[in-house]
Design a protein that fits this description.
It is a single chain. This protein starts with a strand and ends with a strand. The strands form four sheets. A seven-stranded mixed β-sheet has the order 15-14-13-16-17-19-18, with helices on both faces. Strands 1-3-4-5-2 form a five-stranded mixed β-sheet. A five-stranded mixed β-sheet has the order 6-7-8-9-10. Helix 9 links the parallel strand 14 and strand 15. The radius of gyration is 22 Å and the shape is globular. It is α/β, with parallel strands linked by helices and 395 residues long. The longest helix is centred in the N-terminal third of the chain and has 18 residues.
């Protein structure tokens, strides 16, 4: 197959790409009329400034990430068989890690499918084609997914901020099969109800699985508060670990309904309660009520989704820590999480320590957690290591 050619500017650094960095930014590429004329998601051979071939890339001149490396072989044919090879490799890892088919199957660049996320829920899978090339090739991608995994229902979730950055419209479609109810997902002994059509992202956050498990170890006999709970991530895990009772707080009534349904499915409804409202206001209200918990976990959305939002995001994380710390009983535990890739571990930890200190509490840092192994990191791409979870013991 013959592909068009795109070229780095003479002063652009090609070494990083040769060593595995997967992106080319718009200011690094020669964007002449021919390059700008390529359709979003087109495939092209990337050359360095001296016309040496670097590999096959996808091109989208509408995006700040103008090229994404897709194959080191410049003659690669990106068809159903190519997708099947990548998916088989991803599946082999997940089947090694997990006994049941509930996991992130594809984690974008780290699994060789740039900008693509696939979460598996038993016989169903949700694809997030967050890059233009994957939208263009959704047909062979979904066909390979069905063939390799045997899933019978495939949903394309084209929603969210990442799509807008690629100039793609928001849309949600069922590509294969049908689904008419939330899917029960067993994880860490809990049962979560995942709404694959109406929930956040793909319906469930698999990335917190190891952090749920760590919190579960702290939860036996405990009073637990789960803030920004979504469908009950930490609270249902705590109940499965023997918590005395758990309260889930979220602004979304549908998410809390799914959490309640999960507690019912687990046989733990009598120990579970929900409270709908703004998280900051609810933390203040609970403090005014004199509430105390043995374990408090706060898992907010990304307060710092970009470098421009970093300063405000760190202030928000500090505020969460300051408001949550007074609710922790002496000797109890506080878990604080961030899914902001712009806030690195040191900055996030510093914000939390400041917040705990401003609340007048002294802390021991017990555990630092990250996303599970079904969310592998591409070492050359810091953005793929977005999730941080810190657990403190408070005096």
């Amino acid at each position: 197959m013959t592909y068009p050619t795109v070229r780095l500017k003479p002063k652009a650094e090609a070494r990083a790409i040769r060593h595995g960095f997967p992106w080319v930014y718009a200011d690094e590429l020669v964007t002449d009329r021919r390059t700008k004329g390529l359709d979003a998601g087109a495939l092209a051979v990337l050359e360095d400034g001296e016309r040496r071939v670097l590999g096959l890339v996808t091109v989208n001149s509408n995006s700040r990430i103008v090229c994404r490396m897709i194959d080191r072989d410049p003659a690669a044919v990106i068809d159903e068989a190519w997708f099947a090879t990548r998916l088989q490799r991803a599946l082999a890892l997940r089947e090694t890690l997990f006994d049941a088919p509930y996991y992130r199957l594809v984690h974008a660049e780290a699994d060789g499918l740039p900008g693509v996320v696939i979460d598996r829920f038993g016989d169903a899978a949700v694809i997030q084609p967050n890059a233009a090339w994957s939208e263009t090739l959704i047909g062979p991608l979904s066909a390979a997914l069905a063939k390799v995994t045997g899933v019978t229902t495939i949903i394309r979730n084209g929603m969210g901020r990442a799509r807008a950055l690629e100039g793609l419209p928001e849309e949600l479609t069922v590509l294969q099969g049908a689904i008419d109810a939330p899917v029960p997902v067993p994880m860490n002994g809990a049962i979560y109800m995942a709404d694959l059509l109406g929930g956040q992202k793909t319906g469930l956050f698999f990335d917190q699985r190891p952090n749920h498990a760590f919190a579960q170890r702290l939860a036996k006999g405990a009073r637990v508060l789960d803030v920004f709970s979504h469908v009950g991530g930490f609270s249902l895990a705590a109940l499965a670990g023997g918590a005395e009772r758990a309260l889930a707080v979220d602004s979304s009534a549908p998410a809390l309904k799914l959490a309640q349904d999960g507690a019912v499915a687990m046989g733990a409804a009598s120990r579970f309660a929900t409270r709908q409202g703004d998280a900051f206001a609810t933390l203040e209200a609970l403090a005014a009520e004199g509430a105390q918990f043995d374990l408090v976990v706060c898992d907010p959305p990304a307060f710092a989704p970009s470098k421009q939002a970093l300063e405000a995001g760190l202030r928000a994380y500090e505020r969460v820590a300051r408001l949550a710390a007074p609710l922790v009983a002496p000797g109890g535990y506080l878990g604080l999480c961030s899914c902001s890739h712009a806030a690195d571990l040191a900055a996030f930890r510093g914000a939390n320590v400041r917040g705990i200190g401003r609340a007048g509490r002294r802390a021991q840092l017990l555990h630092t957690g990250f996303a599970g192994p079904d969310h592998p990191l591409l070492p050359q791409l810091a953005e793929s290591g977005y999730l941080k979870a810190l657990f403190f013991r408070l005096d």
